Amino acid sequence: MPGHHFKYTILFLLLVHVQVIVFNNVLLGNYLNPQVYVLFILILPVAVKGWLLLLLSFLLGLTIDAFSDSMAIHAASSVFMAFCRPGVIRFVAGRIPVDEPVIPSISQLGGFTIILYSIILIFLHHSLLFFLEIFRTDELMQTLSRILLNSGLTLVFVFLCFALLEGIFQDKRK
Amino acid sequence: MRNLFRFIYRHYFFFLFLLMETLALGLTASYQHYHQSYFINSSNAIMARVYSMADNFSSYLWLRQENRLLAEENTRLLNIGRENYLITDRDEFVEEDSLYRRRYTYMNSRVINNSVVRRNNYFTLNKGRSMGVEPDMGVITTRGVAGVIVNVSENFSVGMSLLHSDFQLSVMIKKDGNIGSLRWEGDNHRRAHMSYIPPHIELQRGDTIVTSGFSTIFPEGILIGTISDWEIRRGETFYTAAIDLAMDYNTLTEVYIVTNLLREEQRELEESVTPDI
Q1: Predicted ipTM of the assembly
Q2: What are chain B's domains?
Q3: Are residues B117 and A75, on separate chains, in Cβ contact within 8 Å?
Q4: Over 80: is that where the pLDDT of B98 sits?
């Protein structure tokens, strides 16, 4: 496991930079602002300790918040997403023994399971995020389309990253 | 007591989640309207440095457009210079004249970070407290209002963009001086909506909208955009007009920070007659 600390640290920093410099600035369309940084929460090992999962998600969200001047809405939605994660894993992949070093990936859980796992968590994260951002009930249709469009777009990028990172996070298994 | 601890320990995941979520939501709710005092923001040193570095690369993207805007503004400034006029009498204008009191000063600044895709957008400028920037100063460009400074650090400042759900601007129709209120409704970064236009007014497509000068932040007459469409919305008695913004907020690079030297005086006076509601 120790070898992973370095990889996860790099991934954390990389995702924060890519999110705030690229995805928050590139104009893809009127409502489109994919939150690709949630990949970090998705890709943590299945057996990660609960407190570590929550703490890392909180820190990740707060870092994004600091860059985007958005109070603590990313922190709130990331922590919520992390809280739902163990349950969602149990739901899509069944009970995985704690001593097995499984990392959510296409080769270990299968492509369909990864998509299902990602879309549920991304949708939960985005729902809270975009409601907190506007903080009012008018413009409801707009908020809903923001949630749906961005969930789809984030899923595309997250799945691409899962495919790309396949080799890097896998070799530690044996 | 021991059972309680054991209970908390067994379900610590839930309690830790509850604690962190409360903290995050508490921070969000309590600072919703007090941007100045919030400590986690992008005007601090680390965040601003990252944005400065990114800006070093991306600033080349808009050079051509930026040059054209500067040339246009130079032409305009050349045209209003006094050397263009023949002096026909000795009635000269002097700046220290007690009849003229300076109200606004301007300084230029670079935008090192900016977004248009969120519902609530902000931008970061590379000038801060050490250059005299303070919260509530206006930020304008040659073709529109960019926003208001909400947060400053020593060398950087963060502005709330016009593309923000809390941003309201008093504007007027240039040709007849009718006042309305401009707000961005989040759908398209090239369009905002002006409400409270009395229905007896004859609107025309292409009418120019400028700032009204009613705010203590922006001078009067800054270009905002043109009317493209209007309607009376359900349940309302006033026109709401769609405004094509003259400024493309996605290309925001060079801005002017406006200081209203008489702002405090005006605000104190206005507050003294406004009844508490």
Answers
A1: 0.86
A2: 38-260 (2.40.10.340)
A3: no
A4: no
